[in-house]
């Protein structure tokens, strides 16, 4: 065995499958596998298409396959992402190593336990949700909101044996209240798993890494009651991805337009770009623009279809498959295709109007050339003179790899109130126990006892509220 070869950490069938199917490990895989195998909380920063998701999953799968009697009943690996479409994509892609390693083991004469993966999101039918509780999979793929529902129902019993929790696209969560919500969910999950679980965070655009690591790890009280961040190992494989990037104005000069609007010029430009490439994703910033662009692109023949949150699950899946299989030249999308989804061999990404920040722009352009070593080709198309200026700055920062610093919201009392109600609905707690659990979550590390107790008083009916729209005066406390 080569001590410098991270694949030697794995079972022979896992090692053989990886070498045959994928070749040599990428940087996030070489650096991440030893840490995860050593049960260390791990944060991985790596470019889009660098294999960071497999860096997390393969170490987890190897751990499950090593159980002599097979994994115990219940969910063992929990994967959480902010996007339902990404979850469905991960579920499809996960079948490749599951089936490939199983077949390799059979040929090599190894007995490996069969592993099952399933998705649980808002799109999951009720009958399937009940089946997942009766017969939980070893690997559960979900969203923060669905995890909350599981933890606040009898479904939480299926999560009492979780050994690994993967948080994908963590940058899209820790900078907003969904991330605050998730941080408390992780501590609720910790509370029903006294032996703990390994936390793994993944993203292509996250800075500063130490802040994201503290968000991922949370904290534990020491012997004197002081909260100390849980140690998190950081894998910084965030080499800048090779970009073919241009800002392309649809008009020579912004101002009064001969056609009364800049949109006809944008449609023509997009149509030309789509016809020059085999596979294109066009991003717009809202659903109305997506539908409008799609409609005009298809005036003569259908070359594009729309993809956003209001499109049904079946239609979204059909659109994704059509683009991957080469049956559809283009998809026009909102952020629904932004995060981590493998859309196959996409040649070009177009962004209509400024996406607002460098991280989002890199995520979107990264959908093109979504394979190790490939160049991502992007064209930024402004709608206004202000867009033109902003996109020029964004392009410069994207090439330099300078993404905005993430700031985690702190002490969000509305999220806290919701989670306190959920906690009280499931178990009996003393006030000090609840306060300690909340303080373990990074966004609430500095929550004062006064703010916590006031929130408890509010949700327990200590204060009455009147209808503010009526202009009435609120009554005094009860």
Report what the structure shows.
By secondary structure, the protein is α/β, with parallel strands linked by helices. The protein is 42% helix and 13% strand. It has a 7-stranded parallel sheet with strand order 3-4-2-5-6-1-9, with helices on both faces. It has a 6-stranded parallel sheet with strand order 10-15-14-11-13-12, with helices on both faces. Strands 7-8 form a two-stranded antiparallel ribbon. Helix 13 packs across helix 14. The protein is globular. It starts with 11 loop residues before the first helix and ends in a 19-residue tail after the last helix.
Jot down its keywords.
478 residues, alpha/beta, 15 strands, globular
Q: What proportion of the residues is helical, as a percent range?
A: 40-55%
Average predicted confidence as pLDDT: 89
| Count of DSSP strands | 15
Q: What Rg do the Cα atoms give?
A: 24 Å
